[in-house]
Write a structure and sequence with these properties.
Strand order of the largest sheet: 3-2-1-5-8
Largest sheet: 5 strands, mixed
Strand content: 15-25%
Number of strands: 16
Bound molecules: dinuclear copper ion
Number of helices: 8
Oligomer: single chain
Structural class: alpha+beta
Distance between the termini: 67 Å
Order of helices and strands: HHHEEEEEEEEEEHEEHHEEHEEH
Low-confidence stretches: 1-5, 248-274
Helix content: 25-40%
Radius of gyration: 28 Å
Length: 415
């Protein structure tokens, strides 16, 4: 028995080594969104099924091709041989070529079905619950155990199972963080679940995306996932739960930051004196592959050298269309739920569903003309004199660059 198994084992080992060698080319250094370096039990399970499928497919391919070549050579036409003898049916052969594929399919099906049941089972008690709501085209993340609502940036504690409850506010989307897990669809009127345990040994940032075509900006529906230590996660939740530091009452002596057209990183206009704990992943820790590289569309301009005033920005924001769509906890005027919750917007590293860096330049242009920045977006064009590509009209009224600079200062003050 062992004698017959040995060649198969050797073949298995050789193929596994070959796969490992080939996949070394898919390392996370070169391909940061690789699925071949799993960091959760979910991805490890999927990868093991992939390996098994690859082994059996390769084995079948090699055997069939070898048999084909041998038959072609062995029974080739030779000089002086007449018409070959016609054969009708061979029971032994037919049973064999029915049984062997059936056995191979069973060998593949057993671990696959087991993995489906395992990953579809209920998450362990005490798992972190995260509601994921897909919107055209951004991600809403709710942490019901902590009373937190945020957008496009997902925080996960290392070593704790996270149970995602997946919904859609409109069409079908699909949730995927290649290094961690997915894909799974987000469907309106139906709840899907997905759970995994991030087990990376250190803090890390990962790219996430939508993987089901969902309209004009499907390719622009991105997010970031951050794995942090459990202690940092707890501090992050405390911070997220607190109302915006730059609250309803304009802070006296709020410092301002200049808004320029240069690509300088965002300054910190207001540092919350009351909070010293962990607020989130910082830009300097961001791996290069998670830094947005989307160029600014042609034709968008913003007056250079303007200095925004956060207190003034808060007033302009609170009487503009912004409040109809966005919530800022701490600003009682801002209670909208159509767009992303902006309570701690200033501490986010990206904007527009992970499309641009959250710096002064990109935010100013985003407020001025979001519909040019991201095709199809619901966010209206707000800059005076801007052309709205969806309505096909040019705004005769709207926000001036100075007013936008003020709103930028206000939103960036919301650390
Ligand atoms: Cu959402 Cu594609």
């Amino acid at each position: 028995m062992t004698a017959t198994l040995r060649p198969r084992r050797r073949l298995h080992a050789a193929l596994t080594a070959a796969i490992a060698l080939a996949l070394a080319g898919c390392s996370a250094d070169k391909y940061p969104n690789t699925i071949f370096e799993p960091t959760t039990e979910f991805n490890r399970e999927v990868l093991s099924i992939f390996h098994s499928l690859f082994f059996w497919s390769a084995l079948v391919f090699v055997l069939v091709e070898a048999a084909l070549i041998w038959v072609m050579w062995r029974y080739r036409r030779r000089e002086g041989t007449g018409e070959p003898r016609h054969v009708h049916g061979n029971t032994t052969l037919e049973i064999a070529w029915t049984l062997i594929p059936a056995i191979i399919l069973i060998v593949i099906a057993v671990p696959t079905v087991r993995a489906i049941f395992r990953t579809q089972a209920k998450a362990v008690p005490g798992a972190l619950q995260v509601q994921v709501i897909g919107h055209q085209w951004w991600w809403e993340f709710k942490y019901p155990q902590y009373g937190i609502t945020t957008a496009n940036e997902l925080y996960l504690p290392i070593g704790r199972t996270v149970n995602f409850e997946l919904h859609s506010a409109d069409v079908i989307h699909s949730f995927w963080i290649p290094r961690l897990g997915g894909k799974r669809d987000l469907i309106a009127n139906h709840t899907n679940y997905l759970w995994f345990t991030p087990d990376s040994v250190s803090e890390n940032a990962f790219n996430g995306s939508c993987n089901e075509y969902c309209g004009a900006s499907h390719a622009n529906m991105r997010f970031r996932a951050f794995t942090v230590t459990p202690a940092e996660f707890e501090q992050w939740t405390v911070h997220q739960k607190s109302p915006a530091v730059f609250g309803a009452a304009p802070a006296a002596g709020a410092t301002t930051a200049p808004v320029t057209a240069a690509t300088t990183p965002a300054g910190a206009p207001v540092t919350p004196a009351s909070y010293t704990g962990y607020t989130g992943f910082t830009a300097d820790k961001l791996p290069a592959y998670t830094v947005p590289t989307m160029p600014i569309p042609d034709g968008l301009k913003f007056t250079a050298g303007l200095t925004g005033d956060a207190a003034r920005g808060q007033q302009i924001y609170s009487r503009s269309a912004c409040i109809g769509c966005h919530t800022i906890s701490g600003n009682p005027m801002s209670q909208g739920v159509i767009g992303p919750n902006l309570t701690h917007f200033g501490s986010r590293l990206t904007l527009a569903s992970g499309l641009y860096a959250n710096d002064e330049q990109h935010l100013a242009l985003w407020i001025k003309n979001a519909r040019v920045m991201k095709p199809g977006v619901l966010m209206p064009t707000l800059g005076k004199g801007e052309h709205d590509p969806i309505l096909g009209t040019t705004l005769t009224s709207g926000l001036s660059d100075q007013e936008i600079a003020d709103i930028v200062a206000y939103l960036h003050a919301l650390k």
